[in-house]
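Quick illustration, no need to memorize.
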Amino acid sequence: MPPAETIERLPVRVGWNGGTQVNLLSARRNEPPEDRLVRTGVRTPSSAASDWAYAWLWRDIDAALQTAYGLA
C-alpha cells in the first residue's frame, strides 16, 4: 500500500464507460470482507468528471475492477 501522500496525488481513474465513482454494495452479512480492506485515511472530494457511477456487489469486485479499470 503506498503512503497517503502518494495516494492523494493520484489522478481520478476513469472506467470503461467514463465512470469515476464506485458504490460498493453488500448483499450478505459477511460483506465487506474485512481482510481485503485497508483504511488509508485519505479523503477526496467527489469527482464531477462524469455522470457515470458504478454500483458493484462485493462478491463481484474482482471481475468488476478487471472490466472497468483493467485491474485485478
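Residues 19 and 52 are 4 Å apart (CA to CA).
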